[in-house]
Amino acid sequence: MNPSTLIGMLASLLLLAVLLMFSAQQPGLFVDLPALGIVVVGTFAATFISYPLREVLRIFSLIKTVVRHEREYTQEDIDELVSLSRLWLDGDLRAVEDALERVKNPFLRCGVQLVIDKTPLDDILDLLQWRIARLRAKEHAEAQLFRVMASYAPAFGMLGTLVGLVNLMFVLGDGDMLTIGRQMAVGLMTTLYGVLLANLLCKPVAVKLERRTEQRVVVMNMVLQGVAMMANKRSPGLMRETLKSFVAHYQNDLRDEPVRSARALIPLKWKARA
């Protein structure tokens, strides 16, 4: 499981437990199945109306993607590009093709195959950039799905509150304050559920998916740069250092931060001999 997702889930459960245990006189009043049904069913109903069926059905697989810890293969991609470039410079086309069959990254394999086929560099870059743009648009639409759900959930929470207020009007004439208070509490539950669904599930998942897309685009741009250098027959050493700059993490891009602070020098005072 993704560590940050696990920490967020545990923190959310802890927050809700603290609110129920220390801020509510009757924690059972915060459990209202009809109010929860209005928010959840209404949100999904509006989402089904807004998006095609195949996209809505991907909600659960996308949540699984956010929860799952994905391993990064950036270093493996760099090593494969450098080794393929070295074989390409040696002129061993058969060895390049054999090594290319063992490459698992389809984007990298496509770019190198185009280089082997002696496709013009401009055409290679156009195709790879188009694939990057297509992936970015596809995954942006997936994240946007959860942002739309985050906007629907509070709206249906307010709808449930309005239903509760209508029921409140019917019992208002009886003058029973206990019944009036319970109806008001039930009416406000839907707003609470809508806010929780939007801000503890939908929006965090959308942000996580957008961040994942940014990281994948960086890796794809790194591969694109490596393919371009391979087509231009640049040295493997230069390629390795260039590709490492895509994934290097610096605290300051203009100046290296000291690892540890240097000890202050103690001034020495010399006494002149008598």
TrEMBL record:
Highest rank taxon of the organism: Bacteria
Membrane topology annotation: Multi-pass membrane protein
Biological process (GO), any one: bacterial-type flagellum-dependent swarming motility
GO CC, alphabetical: plasma membrane
Main localization category: membrane
Chain ranges of the MotA/TolQ/ExbB proton channel domain: 102-221
Location of the protein in the cell: Cell membrane; Membrane
Keyword Membrane: yes
Keywords of this entry: Cell membrane, Membrane, Protein transport, Transmembrane, Transmembrane helix, Transport
InterPro entries, sorted: MotA-like, MotA_ExbB_proton_chnl
Pfam families membership: MotA_ExbB
Transmembrane segments: 34-53, 152-172, 184-202
Similarity remark: Belongs to the exbB/tolQ family.
Designated name of the protein: Chemotaxis protein MotA
Species this protein is from: Pseudomonas extremaustralis
